[in-house]
Amino acid sequence: MRSRALAITLAGSLPLLALVTWSSAQALPGFFDPCFLWGQQQAEMTAVLEADGPCRAIRGTSQTKTQAVVNLVLVQGGILAAVLLALAGAVLTRPVLTVLGAGLIFLESIPLIFSFAFLTVFASGIFLLAARQMVSFGAASRIGARVIGALALAALPLYLPSMFSGALFLVFLVAALAFVAAVGWWPAA
């Protein structure tokens, strides 16, 4: 059962690690690029390029450096912490750790709601499924799984009406929420 839980946890972790790697690779170069402007509003975005200057093009963002650092720490750092908790729970056969990782990754869907929330919600369900594979799935783990499942169930009515708006990510999000609710409330074996 331990190897099954570990395999399931790894399957849920790999897409998240790919997402963190990709998004960090998009954000980090701006910190070291002298031609990248931080905290720019679209109306005030003016730049003069000199023919012999260091910049051939100038890019910018409305985020300040501080906002970007906070975003990196909270979102990417939170995803990494959730993955590490889930993997530690699978390796040590401690379902409470895996359920904590599932809860943390479920919370990470909030800042990602209009982009990759479906991926983090789905990974939460995968982590819950991995925790259920462990022999020592006790009362604390079951309560944690049911709380996460109840949150997913409560969120479903919020997104069901907008699911038909044509945004494919909302269809995936509703499916992921239904999956988490089902895994969280699945009867004990």
Can you give keywords for this protein?
189 residues, mainly alpha, two-stranded parallel sheet, 7 helices
Describe this structure in words.
This protein starts with a helix and ends with a helix. With 189 residues, it is mostly helical. It contains seven helices and two strands. The model has no long low-confidence stretch (mean pLDDT 88). The chain has helices at 2-27, 29-32, 65-92, 95-107, 117-132, 139-159, 168-185; strands at residues 36-37, 59-60. The chain is elongated and about 70 Å long. Strands 1-2 form a two-stranded parallel ribbon.
**Shape call:** elongated
Which oligomerization state do the chains in this entry correspond to? single chain
Helix/sheet category: mainly alpha
Stretches where pLDDT is under 50 for at least 5 consecutive residues are: none
Rounded to an integer, what's the Rg over CA atoms? 20 Å
Fraction of residues in β-strands: under 5%
**Widest β-sheet, arrangement of strands:** 1-2
Termini Cα gap: 13 Å
Count of strand segments: 2
Major pleated sheet: 2 strands, parallel
Which bin fits the share of residues in helices?
Answer: 55-70%
Order of helices and strands: HHEEHHHHH
Helix tally equals 7
Mean of pLDDT: 88
Write the layout of secondary structure elements.
Layout: H1 2-27, H2 29-32, E1 36-37, E2 59-60, H3 65-92, H4 95-107, H5 117-132, H6 139-159, H7 168-185
